[in-house]
Amino acid sequence: MPLTAMAAATAARLRGAELTYGEVGRTTGPLPAGYHHVRRVAVIGVGAAVFAEAADSLLGLRHAARAPGKR
User: If both were cysteines, with which of 1, 18, 52, 65 could 60 make a disulfide (CB 3.0 to 4.6 Å apart)?
Assistant: First the structure.
């Protein structure tokens, strides 16, 4: 799924939408209890092309398809 710009009307609607969870802003300090917290850092490359491929993969949920137990 290639990246495309979001329509201005959609962006405006989302900016004004109510959030659906109570822990808004909780990642600025200690993470809230009751969730599984995973922190992982990996260097995947350098440059705009690598960034675009990584973003495309995340937004296309390809990472979920490659997750353990999901093959």
Answer: 1
